[in-house]
Structures are given as structure tokens and as C-alpha cells.
Amino acid sequence: MANLQFYETDVLIVGTGPAGASAAALLSTYGVNNMLINKFGWTARTPRAHITNQRTMEVLRDLGLEDECLLYAVSNDLMGENTFCTSLADDELGRIKTWGTHPNRAADYELASPTQMCDLPQNLLEPILVKRAAILGTKVRFDTEYLSLEQDADGVTATLLDRLTGTKFQVRAKYLIGADGANSRVLEDIGLPLEGEMGKSGSINMVFEADLSKYVAHRPSVLYWVIQPGSAVGGLGIGVVRMVRPWNKWLAIWGYEVDQGPPEVTDEFATSIVHKLVGDETIDVKIERTSTWTVNDMYATDLSKGRVFCAGDAIHRHPPTNGLGSNTSIQDSFNLAWKLALVLKGKASESLLDTYSTERAPVAQQIVQRANKSLGAFPPIAKALGLMDAKNPEEMRANMAARKNATPEAEMQREALRKAILESDPVYNCHGVELNQRYSSSAIVADGSKSEPWQRDEELFHQASSRPGAPVPHVWLHTTFGKVSSKDLCGRGRFTVLTGIGGEAWVEAAKAAAEAHGIEIDTYVIGPGKAYQDPYGDFADVRGTSDSGALLIRPDFHVAYRAQSLAENATQELGNAIGQILGMDAGTAKAAAE
């Protein structure tokens, strides 16, 4: 080992997936030296994750990447006619509006964020993030495999393999992020605890090109669920045709018996499955790539050990239902990156890094449980179709066809099917799961307020709140040059203070805290006659304070401190809050700077 080439960096990131690539882009934005490695020759080759929710779009917006991402994304209006059918060409069983496209949900999404959901496949998103990271200074290495690590009180030494030359080398980093997927070697090496089960069922992905416009353009959607009793693979014969690009690039998903191991998936086999799902053997199908994967139900209960942190699929392993995977991965990094930056710059104590696990481990558990719970939405649909108790495929098909009859029994079946499809709504429209994160840690200064009561289902519906720990609410503020989201005043690696008329002392308090701790704190006074105005009173409705109160927003958009009104000693109050969040009082911060 002594003769190996040796490199140094502040943060080594293993994996260029959504978690790793976003961590690199964020760290470089914050001025932190980092190296990003991938054992393969390029980023994701297949579409994989694709649903991109508003919270993630806010992170991409913060990185200055929203417009570029939208160039490659399919817009929200083409995502929502989720269809159940016997094949794309044959019987339609029903539909449900998804991803906030139903008129009675559209307002919820519009009011929640300055961004819109979109469909951006992972193989298109990852290069955007990696490019931004590289432009800003990240040292990116492909064909570079992580082998092992050793850590001590001052840093982490990782041994890596250059797969092009076959030579090993070492990187000495102050911190390491393991973003190396559901089979994370980094997580295994540091022994993070996991709960749950891997390999619950098996699936086959088949990426293909085919012009399916005549079957789908009139019902544009991301997902088409195909139910075909008697098909050779997948139990009841439930498959998915997923739009990758409208309407000529697709991903078909089909099951296999996991206890028998994955089958050999030839182009001929894949084409036969695609033809069955489409219901038209005459269409020209070009198989691009195939792969197998398993449905998992596992999450980490602790996300770091020493100077090594894990993020993304390494810590939350679940099925693709609800489309939470890449979104949560990017949000993991949004939580961690600013904390690493402040610690590395000597502006915060290492205790701040402990809050990554405290805040994000509950999110990992929640989304794994939600995604697996969503799998339970499909048996009621099968039951309504008469598939669960049928003795053979012929009887299944007859039971499905019976819903068309003009009989009281058929009417009851139709009603049961409509209800079952409607009750699958949480699989697609879990707006609250996407946006309602509430953090509780030493990096959040509690204000003694009671837990907020949920006005509606907390998983289905977003609820704006200014309570410490919640994401800062979005409202449109108005200026002489147009409207600006309250979220756009925050982020970019800096803290932000939002106050109103009569709260100007908070501006001075923020200047004092920024100087004392050597950090950046942006300040905005919102009200009539100010640069940012609230003509509709929307901000006044959600801020949870009087005009003279204040909100302190962390770089990751979460409310860190709230004052109901102007404090008698605002400078001391805000300074204490900043000190608690950073784990470092002003005196210690000054000494560290010297």
C-alpha cells in the first residue's frame, strides 16, 4: 500500500447517481473541494427513476439547473392519464388522474411550490448534475471503483481501482459520502444498521423503441398498467408500460419468480413480452437494453459512522411506487452538503453533521414504508376484476369480461372496480409525503409551539407551515420587476432572515451574527414600500409571526428559528439561535477563524 499513488480532497463521493452527483454539484457550489467517482464508464445507461417532484425541482432550481432540466423533461400535463387495461390495443379497464393533474388537485400543487413536477429519466438527469459539478470544480473520475476505506480521527483513506489501467490508488479525504446504490459497499464496510427485507419479488426492465402514438396519445400518461391473466410470467400477469419519451421510447416492466432466480432475457423474449403488453404483434420493436431487479423493503436507521456518510438508495431501498427514489436521494444531499461545507470551513462544529442522520433517517423509513404500502393498492383491483378466486386463466378472463354485462352483478363489479382504482390514488398523488418533511434536531431551534394539527391527510396533501423544522412556505412576492417566490430568497448555501415592517432590528441582528460566525445571512424586509411586497397577504397568512417577527431559514430551505415578534434583544436571540444550529458560539467561531 505504501507505494500506491496518493491524492487528497475534502470530500470523496462514491457514486454518480442522483445522490452522489447532486452532492458533488452542491459542494462545488459551496466552494468545497471534492472528488466524484463511478466504477462504470458513464452515468446511468437506462431511464430508471423518472418522476421528479416539486421538492427536487426546488433543489435543481437552487442549483440553477431548473431550466436545463425542463428542456429534457416531459411536462406535467403529459403525465397524468394513468390507465389500466388488458393491453394498450385492447380493453381499457379504467383510469385515474395522477401526479397532481386532476383539477381538484392542481391547485394544491400550484400553491405549494414555484416549480412543477415533471418526468425526467435518471439517464438524462445525471449528466446534467455531473456536468454542473465538473464545471464548478469537482474532480470527476469514471471507470474508478471503490475497494475499501479506513478512517481515523482526521479523515478517511479510500483505496480505489482504476479499471482502465488495473492499478490501485488511494484518496485521502476529510469526509466520504457513500452514494453507491442499493448494494452499497460503503454502507457494508462501515456497518450501518439496516431494517427490512431485500429481494421480496423480481422484475425485468426492457427499454425499447416503438411508435405507440395511436394507442396512447389520446390518454397521455407516464404509466399504463396491463393486466393479462394467463401470461407465462408474473403470476396474475400484471405488467407496466412506462413512457420514457412520448410516444416512441418506453420501458416495459414484467415480473419473474424471485425464488427461481432471474431468467435469461434475450431480445426475442423481451420483444414477445412487449408485443403482449401492447397487444399488437405487428408493431416494430427495437429492444435497447434489458435488466433485472428486485423489490426491496429496507432502510438504514443510522446514516453515518465517523467521517463516512451514506445517502440515496444505499439507505432507502424500495420499489418504484410513488416515484420517491431519486427525489429522496437528491434531498439527502441537499441536507448534508451545506453542513459539510460549514464544518470544513470551520464555521460549524462537527456536531452539526450528526443532525444529518437525525433528520434524514426518519425520511428514509417513511418513504420505504410508503412505497411498499402502495403495492397493496393492486390486489383490490384484481379482486374487483374477479381474478383472486378464479381457478384458471379462462375463468379470470371471463370474470373480467363480465363487468360489461347489463346485470345487477355486473353493475356491482363496475362500482367495485371504480372504487378500487380510485383508492389507488395514494400511489401517485402523495403530495404530503413529497413535501411535508418536518425536521427535529439540534439544528432546529424549537419555539415551544404545539405540533401542528393536520387539516387533511398528511400523506396525500401538502400543508404549509412556518413552524421550526418545516420547509419555508412558498408564496409569490411582488417587486417592481415581477414576482419572486419566497423560496427564491433562500438557499444558495446561505442562511436567510425574513421579516416585516417593524422587524428591521432583525436585519441588524443578522449582520452581527454573520460577522460573529463568519457566515453569510441574507435579509429581506417584506411589506408595503419595501423591495419585496405581499399585496395579497399570502406571506402574512403563512409566516406564523407578526410583522415584526422573523424566520431564519437554513440553506436547505427549512425554517431553523422563528420569533413571533421583535425580541427585546434581537441580536442576542438570533446569535444564540445561530450558535445552537452551528454547534459553535460566537467566541469559538472567532477563535476558529483566527
Provide a descriptive summary of the structure in words:
- With 594 residues, this protein is an alpha+beta fold.
- 33% of the residues lie in helices and 25% in strands.
- Strands 1, 2, 8, 9, 10, 11, 17 and 18 form an eight-stranded mixed sheet that branches.
- The longest helix is centred in the middle third of the chain and has 24 residues, at 351-374.
- It is globular, with a radius of gyration of 26 Å.
- It starts with a strand and ends with a helix.
- The model has no long low-confidence stretch (mean pLDDT 95).
List the helices and strands and how they pair.
Elements: E1 5-14, H1 18-29, E2 34-37, E3 51-52, H2 54-62, H3 66-72, E4 74-75, E5 81-85, E6 92-97, H4 103-112, E7 118-119, H5 122-136, E8 139-141, E9 144-151, E10 156-162, E11 167-178, H6 185-190, E12 194-209, H7 213-216, E13 223-227, E14 238-245, E15 249-256, H8 267-278, E16 286-300, E17 304-305, E18 308-310, E19 316-317, H9 325-344, H10 351-374, H11 378-384, H12 393-401, H13 408-422, H14 431-435, E20 476-479, E21 482-485, E22 495-500, H15 504-517, E23 521-526, H16 538-542, E24 550-553, E25 559-563, H17 570-582, H18 586-593
Parallel strand pairs: 1-2, 1-11, 2-8, 5-13, 11-18, 22-23
Antiparallel strand pairs: 3-7, 4-7, 5-6, 9-10, 10-11, 12-15, 12-16, 13-14, 14-15, 16-19, 17-18, 20-21, 22-24, 24-25
Helix pairs in contact: 1-5, 1-9, 9-10, 11-13, 15-17
